[in-house]
Amino acid sequence: MSKIMTYDYWVENFKPIKNHLVKYDQLTFETYDEEYEFVKSANPNCVWTEVDGDSGTYIVSGLHWVNRIHYYITENPWEDEYTEVPTWVYRTCDCADEETDGVLTWDGDPNPDCPECDEGMIDIPCETVVDLKDIYGQETDIVG
Ligand SMILES: [Zn+2]
To answer: Of 4, 50, 112, 143, which has the fewest beta carbons less than 10 angstroms from its beta carbon?
Structure first.
């Protein structure tokens, strides 16, 4: 079972460092070349991976390969290897769903004129503990 926390709590407590290898003010590190080399040279317990999931993106503890988007390095090490920090959550809009044998699936063809969604996706707020309880269930322990 993952430990789920809000992004704000994560930033405040783990303190992601700035990427000094780029001229922009950013916290993320690329998945290739010198930025990736730097990530690999960091304390493994201070490395986090932002990954692409089924219904959004989230930051997870550790260096991962599958579905990676980019990396973060924090000042403070993680302790729980199953820590999860949602950064973007969406649901599929009704206009992009297709019912096949009673199961709703993404039909890949959302209505471009739909007022509800952006290309078939509707963003779900995921910033606060309340937001995350709405997503994961009221019984879920959310750190935030
Ligand atoms: Zn729609």
So the answer is: 112
